[in-house]
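Record type: monomer structure entry
Structure origin: computed from sequence
Chain ID: A
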Amino acid sequence: MSKKQLVVNADDFGFTPDVNQGIVEAHRNGILTATTLMANGDAFDDALRHWRDTPTLDVGCHLVLIGGNSLVTGKPFPASISQLLAALVKRELRVYDEFAAQVRRIVDAGVRMPTHLDTHKHTHLAPPVLEAVARISEEFGIRWVRRPFDFPLTASALRGGIPRMKQLTSDALSLMRRRFHRVLAEHGCRTTDHFAGFQITGRFRSAELVELMSVIPEGSTELMVHPGHCGPALRGAPTRLKESREHELAALIAPEVREAMTRNGIELVNYTDLASIQ
């Protein structure tokens, strides 16, 4: 068994049809092994159709509190992190109820055993959101939860290609790590040993992925990605990640990336595999 296991996990399944198509293509033709589904996404039904045709794609829940509409109230969610934080302070959101409704919609649609949880825009770094995610994980038996703290990239030239503000934000988020893991442990949640993708979101092509493979540490790592085709639906969607999704898709299916994985002794896995290995 390899000492390095890598889960390549795509966010935003169900966001738009062109994003869905890119995620499935990255799985069928490349190194992507898992994705998380947006229960309130405009292309939710389209994502389900793709998933039924792609049974090897590991599917979890991408829990949403920013963008789109609430499944509980039908009202629009806050449009930004700052607006969400203000709503949390005022206790205007029923976070647990919302997440429970989103998971139930995914389960009722046929995904009987979602394998993992993460949140849109990493909102579970906020304490009240983390508490709700941990409860959902425990009560629904979805044990794997994303740990959104990049492992150190200082030793890699990748670090030089990351904007300074993105580096500082990533470093600041790591200060929350101790409390984050304590809350998850209290609810019996599990995480990969390492995580990568926050600092390079929207900024990598195949050369950067090849380089990243040379610094993947021993143990299990989740690599967060956002592939897609930049068609009319995505161009009209409220997201900054548009053309970059095409670049990420091309990198995920590039032969040199898979060759770099083999060269560095990396085993591709999904969350179902990790549950059986560990």
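Annotation 1: Strands lie at 4-13, 34-37, 58-63, 116-119, 144-145, 194-196, 219-225, 266-269.
Annotation 2: The mean pLDDT is 91.
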